[in-house]
């Protein structure tokens, strides 16, 4: 089991849809309006594992967000990895820091995925990657040391992230 968490409008549902576009049983609806996911959505990927699309935090977050997500993350023993999505255009925000602190406090293995790289200039993206990489190296314990920059629009970085998910869930042949 893996879960995707991030701010509202960071592109969680779009990323899940892009990642599992080859798995017809994973049918993800993507809304035009940010903050549309209000409950945890579970998607079975064949017989292999489950993907959880968490509601977004920050703008339009559901009232019970903290209770729902904290309880889930704390008590889910079969959770292999948490994917924390950060918008590459704006970088790590205060609300992202709260999610990072939660992952650190619960000693969860997590990965930072930079979304919407198609919306950043190469120079801006490089600056964000270096800044976030420095943050990960100096301020985190449980974060995987490699960032995954991706675009759900151009599919850039999707294959590598797909392979990483297959690896952490034990589904690499």
Automatic annotation (TrEMBL):
Keyword Metal-binding on entry: yes
Named cofactor requirement(s): Mg(2+)
Keyword Ribosomal protein tagged: no
EngB-type G domain span: 1-171
Coiled-coil intervals, chain numbering: none
Top-rank taxon: Eukaryota
Signal peptide extent: none
Keywords recorded for this protein, A-Z: GTP-binding, Magnesium, Metal-binding, Nucleotide-binding
InterPro entries: EngB_GTPase (IPR052279), G_ENGB_dom (IPR030393), GTP-bd (IPR006073), GTP-bd_ribosome_bio_YsxC (IPR019987), P-loop_NTPase (IPR027417)
One Gene Ontology MF term: metal ion binding
Recorded family membership: Belongs to the TRAFAC class TrmE-Era-EngA-EngB-Septin-like GTPase superfamily. EngB GTPase family.
Name used for this protein in its record: GTP-binding protein 8
Native species: Gorilla gorilla gorilla
